[in-house]
Every structure is written in C-alpha cells, then in structure tokens.
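Researcher: Quick test of sequence recovery. Tokens follow.
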C-alpha cells in the first residue's frame, strides 16, 4: 500500500456509497413525482434504478479496495481475517563472521574480501570463511 492509497480507498468507498444511496432515493423519489399508473414505470423507478445503482456503487467500492484484496479475492480476505495469522515472508542477510577462526582478528563487511557469493577472505591471514546467515 502506498502512502496516498488510504485516502483514495476511502474516497472511492464514499463515492460508491453516494451512488448506492442516491440511486435508491432517486428511484423512489421519481416514483412519487411521476403522474402515471403504468406498471412498467413503477417497476423501473422502484426496482431497476435502485438495483442498477447498487451494482454500480458496489463496483466502485470494489475497485477502490482492490489493492486490499491482494491475491486472495473476497473469500481469501475473509479467511485471512478469521485466521488472523498471515504468513510473513522472512528476509535473510549473509554477513562475514565476527572473528577470523585462524588468526582471531575482528572481521567487518568493509575489511574482508569477498571471494564468492557466500565466502569471505580474512585481510590479515588470508583464510577463507563461509558467511553467517542472519534473519532481518
């Protein structure tokens, strides 16, 4: 989630709710303002207009929260909230050992020579050592 996405999410939810509520009230108000006894007009204003506004408003709301849904979809989001424990990805870093096992010198990442992706060389005695894996 980016810094401004919380505000955009709330704005799209508000717009979606305005469309839903406006469609319901607008449909019913048109029903009362019409001067007809036609069943088709009554069904249009009382059923069709509120239903269409509900679908459009729900679409706007879902569009606004699509980043929150992630890869799970609606069912996965509900299941993840029920469980409460979402597996977090662990990160690791490889560092040189603190001391050289051959000469006892203190080793830092700046002083050592990297001779492989996971192997360092002591600058004092030339001994090679594997790096130590540490969780970040």
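Model:
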């Amino acid at each position: 989630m980016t810094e401004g996405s919380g505000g955009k999410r709330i704005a799209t939810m508000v717009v979606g709710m305005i469309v839903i509520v406006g469609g319901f009230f607008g449909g019913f108000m048109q029903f009362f303002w019409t001067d007809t006894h036609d069943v088709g007009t009554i069904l249009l204003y009382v059923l069709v207009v509120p239903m269409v506004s509900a679908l459009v408003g729900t679409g706007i709301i879902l569009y606004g929260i699509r980043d929150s849904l992630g890869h799970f979809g609606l069912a996965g989001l509900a299941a993840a909230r029920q469980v409460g424990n979402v597996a977090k990805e662990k990160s690791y870093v490889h560092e040189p050992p603190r001391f050289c096992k051959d000469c006892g010198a203190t080793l830092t990442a700046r002083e050592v020579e990297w001779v492989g992706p996971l192997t360092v060389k002591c600058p004092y005695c030339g001994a090679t050592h594997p790096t130590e894996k540490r969780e970040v």
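The chain has a mean pLDDT of 79.
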